[in-house]
Write a structure and sequence with these properties.
Order of helices and strands: HHHHEEHHHHHEHHEEHH
CATH topology of the largest domain: Arc Repressor Mutant, subunit A
Strand order of the largest sheet: 3-5-4
Structural class: mainly alpha
CATH superfamily of the largest domain: Winged helix-like DNA-binding domain superfamily/Winged helix DNA-binding domain
Largest sheet: 3 strands, antiparallel
């Protein structure tokens, strides 16, 4: 959130990615998969289709997941009979990954399910094949490759086909932005639930009832118990205190902590989202629309 209380593009991307991941989790659950499983399997299918048997690190680099997390997921999928993990003949310390026949079949079914889901979510933009979706995908791809890509204007003028919005793109956007936030929070010893409470408290003018905070924050990703624990932790750290009428409010230290983190976030997002105002307005409108559609979908799944 910005100092003015209005959602920033970075906040909207984060909210969209959280809702999108939850929608994919629900859609692929009947196949015994989560969004993370699907991202790994889909990436492995893509690499395998081009004749590669990647190592766990190569697959991690490709799909944007941490190597240790990929190792954990790979063991689970191996036990489920969806992938094979075999020693790399060129490096005995590494393993190579490939889909089993059953893994290919399950991944293909999952891809069909997720494509249908995304086509539904993207109907406000014309569906998966809509022109607005292509433009939205191109903007996301530019953001994801900011450190390494050509200027946005040059990319928009290229004749190369725009990448279609897919779980890999949204997943990479989520993980890239999430990793930045995680690092910023780690520097101050603040957990994500704690930061969320600080941000919501600031948005409410620096004071809010306990029930208000819980209602504003608690959802499928941050359960009520975690919110209550984080409030207790912030109170113990003297960043929050209980004021009149049991209102939870900032201490001076809490206000300073929020300002420190918020300033760091705004400095980074101002560089990442360095686009013309009209483009940012379009992206914000698109993300808000798709996030709303995802919320509706979640309620019906």
């Amino acid at each position: 959130m910005s100092v003015s209380g209005q959602p920033t593009p970075g906040f909207l991307v984060w909210r969209l990615s959280m809702k999108w991941r939850a929608a994919v989790d629900r859609a692929t659950a009947p196949l015994g998969l989560s969004h993370a499983h699907y991202s790994l399997l889909g990436s492995l299918l893509s690499m395998q289709s081009s004749g590669r048997m990647p190592s766990q690190r190569e697959l991690a680099d490709y799909c944007g997941l941490e190597p240790l997390y990929v190792s954990k997921l790979a063991r689970t999928l191996d036990q489920a009979g969806l992938i094979n993990r075999v020693p790399n003949p060129a490096d005995t310390r590494a393993v190579q990954l490939s889909l089993t026949d059953r893994g290919k079949e399950v991944t293909s079914r999952a891809i069909t399910i997720v494509q249908q889901l995304m086509d539904h979510l993207l109907q406000p933009l014309g569906g998966l094949n809509g022109q607005q979706t292509a433009e939205f995908s191109r903007e996301l791809a530019v953001l994801l490759d900011v450190p390494h890509c050509a200027p946005a204007k040059e990319l928009m003028m290229t004749d190369s086909p725009a990448p279609r919005l897919n779980p890999q793109i949204t997943g990479k956007a989520e993980r890239a932005l999430g990793a930045i936030l995680d690092r910023l929070l780690a520097r101050t010893g603040t957990s994500f639930p704690q930061w969320t409470i600080l941000a919501v408290t600031a948005a409410k003018g620096g004071s809010a009832g306990r029930d208000q905070l819980v209602a504003a924050i608690a959802d499928g990703k941050i359960p009520e118990s975690a919110v209550l624990t984080a409030i207790s932790e912030l109170t113990a750290a003297q960043l929050l205190e209980t004021g009149l009428e049991q209102q939870i409010q900032f201490t001076e230290a809490g206000r300073a902590r929020h300002r420190q983190i918020q300033t760091a976030i705004e400095e980074i997002t101002s560089r990442i989202f360095d686009f013309p105002a009209d483009d940012l307005a379009t992206a914000g409108r698109v993300l808000t629309t798709v996030a709303s559609r995802a919320s509706t979908e979640l309620a019906s799944v």
